[in-house]
Amino acid sequence: MGKSKRLHVVPHQGDWAVKREGSKRASTVTRTKAEAEQWAKEKACEEGGEVVIHDKQGRISDSDSYGNDPHPPNDKKH
Fold this sequence. Notes:
The chain contains one helix and five strands; from the N terminus they run βββαββ. With 78 residues, it is α+β, with helices and mostly antiparallel strands. It has one helix at residues 33-47, and strands spanning 6-12, 15-20, 28-30, 50-54, 60-65. The chain is globular and about 35 Å long.
């Protein structure tokens, strides 16, 4: 089984981390949420994956797909 293409932006010990779904370790840790989101977006664009953004409490607040989604959502925010 290959690595997941879903990247989660999550709070991490006062900073922000990007973790690949199913992985215990962070792919990267940044000081700000914006930096983590940018890193995850660039990686997802390269891989044709998805970025799932969490809030400070760890709840999912947003997500975006980057690639060939066979069933794209009716996304009104972009």
